[in-house]
Amino acid sequence: MSSGVAGLDAVLHGGFVPRRAYLVAGGPGSGKTTLGLHFLTAIQGEPALLVSLGEAADDIRADAESIGLDLSTITLLDLTPGHADGDHASYKLLEPWEAEAPDLRERIDSVCPDGLPQRIFIDALSQFRHLVPDAFQFRKQVMALLQYLTAAGATVVFTAEQGSAADDDLQYLGDGILKLEQGPDGRALHIVKRRGAGFAEGRHAVRLDSHGMQVYPRLVPEDHQQTFVAETIPFGLAELDALTGGGLQRGTVTLVSGPSGVGKTSLGAHVMGEAARRGERSVIFTFEERVGTLSHRCEQIGIPISQMIDTGTLAVREIEPLRYMPEEFACSVQREVEERGVRMVMLDSLSGYRQSVRGRDITPHIHALCRYLSNMGVTVLLINEISAIAGGEVRVSEYGISYLADAVLMLRYMELDGELRKTIGTLKKRTGDFEKTLRHFNITRNGLSVGAPIKGMRGIISGMPELLDNA
Fold it and tell me: What 8-state DSSP symbol labels residue 295?
């Protein structure tokens, strides 16, 4: 049975198991009620029942309308203080256990004379803990209520405030527990237990906005595989192909590393442009530049990005890292690959991507994304900026992720004859041999230019070259 929340059914391996009861726990404002409203309206026009214990009916309808959910076919039983005919019965879950019929059951039956609907949402069942004498009576009465509802064919979702007096008791009574959390690094959901079916473990990102709730499942690379030919992809520049031992390999990750302004993005755009010319769909995710700025810059060096975008062979996605969570961004990449057939992906840059992680370690997120893309036969370019312009320690990456790269291209500055010049070299390639030299690298109006191997010098990588004695 669909949860009605985009992405949550994937986490639940298809949705809720019918005729079971599920607890949604979380702190104030974590999205518990929103999840329940999505559940009620998952199938347009299907009757459902909402039992409200903490929020007035008019407020619930207004909240649902604000996120585009229609409650016109939903029966709403308002048991908040001051309602339920104004008597004190609204404060009692059941009559004393010895009584002939529970009060809430009677009220539900009275608003559902033709039988119970398949979907029932109780918000928030934890409120009743204050209305019974002890925890034993509370558990016994809630258990009787849930058994009655599920036996009658209903699937029940009920909420509890995390940390409340009823929270621990309700966790034992639900067939499944969904926990919602919110913190400095964003909102999240994880499944604590689920009887009768499996689920995707781990932390799954959650977004609440004007459209309601959306869940972004944690990316698990081994769950995604696609057969592909491990072919060589040329750069389109003979000198660069020679430097890298023929070019890139399909389904591999290449780290393009260097200081600011050395030409990393231009090199990446050239590679993506070559893929577009071959008719392969490629996509650039830019975290730092606007699409218009990147397009103008590439047009100035002979890479017609605008034309490629118009033909559909290249897409440029502008990503605001402070808005996107890493799981949300991963879902965007998955859509490009699985729905639009993308064969090459470029992330520009890792520094921008890091902002979306919001203080967490970047490594597990970029690891999962790159392994997924490799499994799907997608060739990946990671643009990585290092802080050192020249001199000092030579560092490929400041994030400790060089192990992910199947190939590493290093761009560096060097000072020669009073001029600042650029060089390019291959530091690593797992899939074959490569040239162990550095070459001059230039960006011109006609495109990229790679020179002959630099010989007769040492100290080039440090940026302070010297002539060899025998040169």
Answer: H
